[in-house]
C-alpha cells in the first residue's frame, strides 16, 4: 500500500483518499511576480509524480493548482519595470505553462488565478467578519488566529507563546522561515499609490495572499481534499493560514493529507537574485541538456530532503539516465516489435518499482531497483517474449517517470 508522510501529524500514513470515487488534490502553484526557476519546478515535479503514481495505482485524480497573480511582490515588481500587473504576471504564466509542457508535467484539471476569484475572496471574508473571526482595522481586514481553536495544528505551533498584546502583520509575505505571532491580513484597503484595486462590497482594495488559496479552492471543491501539497516554506504561516480560513467557514477538514517538498539549493546556497545563482530551465537547455535530463535530476532525490544543484552532480545524473535509457533501448530492440505483456521478470520489475514508490514516493530508490534488475537481465540474456513483457512494464512505469522513452 502507498504510504505518505503527512505533515499533519508528522508521520507516514497509509493513503486512503477522503473520497473513494475521486482523489481531489490541490497544489500551491507559482507566485508569478517572477519567472519560475528549477527550484520551483522541483516542487511542481514532485506533485506531478504524485498525481501520475496515484493514477498508475488505479486512483481517479482531479487536481487544481493556482496562480498567485496578486500580491505585494508582484505590485512592486510591476512598478519597478514600468508595466502593468496583468502584463507582468501574464508573461510569467506563459513561461511557466511552456516549461511545464517541456518537463512533461500533466496539466492540472483546474488552473485558477487569484485575480479571477476576487469575488470568492470577498464572500469568504464577509462570512469571517460575521463570525467575528476577522475584523476591520482602518481599510484593512485581519484574521484573529485566537478565534480559531486549532490554529497552528499543521505546523505544530506552540500557542502558549502567543503575545498578549495584539500585533498585526500587514504584508503578504515576509522573508525567512519564521512565525509571525499575531493577526494576519486578509484584505488590503486601496492606498493612493496602489495601481490595482477592486471595488467590492468590502470597499476598494485587493485580497491578501492568505485568502487567495481558499478563494480558489472553495468554488472548485465542496468536500475535504484528499491531498494538499506545496513547498516546505508554505508549512510556515501560509498553509496554517489557509487551513484556519477554510475550516472557519466549513464544517469539515480542509485536507486529509498535507505533503511538503524541500528546497533546492545551488552549491549549498539558496537561490536568490542577490547571489546571482538562480538556474532557469532555458539556461540548462542552452548548454545542451534535455528537458528529460532536467526532469530526472529534479525527481531522483527524495522530495522531503533538501537537494543541492551542482553542475557536476547534474551531469552525473544525466549519465545515470543515459545508461538506463540505453538498457531500455536494448530491450526494445530485443523485443523487435512484439507486444506481449506479463512475465515473471516483468512482475518483479513492477513490484520493485512499487516498493520504492509506496515508501513515500522514493523515486530514486525505485529507479535504482529497476536499474539493478535490468543490468542483471542484460548479463544473463532474455528471450524476445521476456523482452516484450519487460518493455510493456517499462512503458507503464514511464507513465509516471516520463524519462525513459
Task: Figure out the total of helices.
Answer: 12
| Largest sheet descriptor | 6 strands, mixed
The class by helix and strand makeup works out as alpha/beta
Segments where pLDDT lies below 50 for 5+ residues?
A: none
Helix content: 40-55%
N to C succession of SSEs: EEEHEHHHEEEEEEHEHEEEHHEHHHH
Give the percentage of residues in beta strands: 15-25%
> What value does the Rg take, in angstroms?
23 Å
Quick structural overview:
This protein has 405 residues and is of the alpha/beta class.
Describe the structure.
This protein has 405 residues and is of the alpha/beta class. It contains 12 helices and 15 strands. Strands 5, 6, 7, 8, 9 and 10 form a 6-stranded mixed β-sheet that branches. The longest helix has 25 residues, at 311-335. It is elongated, with a radius of gyration of 23 Å. The two termini are 27 Å apart. 41% of the residues are buried.
Amino acid at each position: 500500500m502507498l504510504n505518505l508522510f503527512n505533515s499533519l501529524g508528522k508521520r507516514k500514513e497509509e493513503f486512503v483518499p477522503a473520497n473513494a470515487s475521486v482523489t481531489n488534490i490541490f497544489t500551491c502553484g507559482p507566485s508569478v511576480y517572477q519567472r519560475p526557476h528549477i527550484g520551483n519546478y522541483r516542487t511542481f515535479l514532485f506533485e506531478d509524480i504524485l498525481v501520475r503514481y496515484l493514477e498508475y495505482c488505479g486512483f481517479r485524480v482531479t487536481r487544481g493548482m493556482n496562480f498567485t497573480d496578486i500580491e505585494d511582490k508582484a505590485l512592486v515588481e510591476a512598478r519597478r519595470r514600468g508595466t502593468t500587473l496583468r502584463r507582468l504576471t501574464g508573461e510569467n504564466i506563459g513561461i511557466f505553462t511552456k516549461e511545464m509542457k517541456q518537463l512533461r508535467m500533466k496539466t492540472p484539471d483546474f488552473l485558477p488565478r487569484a485575480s479571477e476569484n476576487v469575488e470568492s475572496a470577498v464572500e469568504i471574508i464577509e462570512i469571517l467578519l460575521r463570525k467575528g473571526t476577522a475584523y476591520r482595522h482602518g481599510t484593512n481586514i485581519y484574521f484573529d488566529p485566537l478565534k480559531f481553536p486549532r490554529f497552528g495544528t499543521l505546523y505544530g505551533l506552540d500557542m502558549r507563546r502567543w503575545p498578549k498584546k495584539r500585533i498585526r502583520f500587514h504584508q503578504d509575505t515576509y522573508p525567512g522561515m519564521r512565525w509571525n505571532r499575531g493577526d494576519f491580513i486578509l484584505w488590503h484597503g486601496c492606498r493612493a499609490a496602489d495601481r490595482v484595486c477592486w471595488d467590492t462590497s468590502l470597499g476598494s482594495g485587493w485580497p491578501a495572499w492568505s485568502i487567495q488559496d481558499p478563494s480558489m479552492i472553495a468554488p472548485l471543491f465542496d468536500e475535504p481534499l484528499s491531498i494538499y501539497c506545496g513547498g516546505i516554506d508554505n508549512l510556515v504561516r501560509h498553509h496554517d493560514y489557509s487551513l484556519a480560513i477554510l475550516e472557519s467557514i466549513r464544517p469539515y477538514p480542509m485536507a486529509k493529507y498535507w505533503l511538503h517538498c524541500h528546497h533546492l539549493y545551488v552549491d549549498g546556497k539558496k537561490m536568490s537574485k542577490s547571489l546571482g545563482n538562480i538556474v532557469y530551465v532555458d539556461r540548462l537547455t542552452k548548454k545542451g541538456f534535455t528537458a528529460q535530463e532536467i526532469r530526472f535530476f529534479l525527481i531522483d532525490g527524495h522530495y522531503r530532503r533538501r537537494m543541492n544543484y551542482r553542475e557536476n552532480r547534474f551531469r552525473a545524473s544525466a549519465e545515470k539516465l543515459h545508461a538506463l535509457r540505453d538498457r531500455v533501448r536494448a530491450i526494445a530492440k530485443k523485443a523487435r516489435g512484439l507486444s506481449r505483456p506479463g512475465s515473471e521478470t516483468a512482475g518483479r520489475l513492477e513490484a520493485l518499482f512499487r516498493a520504492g514508490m509506496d515508501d513515500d514516493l522514493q523515486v530514486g530508490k525505485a529507479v535504482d531497483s529497476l536499474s539493478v534488475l535490468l543490468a542483471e537481465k542484460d548479463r544473463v540474456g532474455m528471450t524476445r517474449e521476456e523482452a516484450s513483457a519487460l518493455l510493456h512494464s517499462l512503458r507503464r512505469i514511464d507513465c509516471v517517470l516520463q524519462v525513459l522513452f
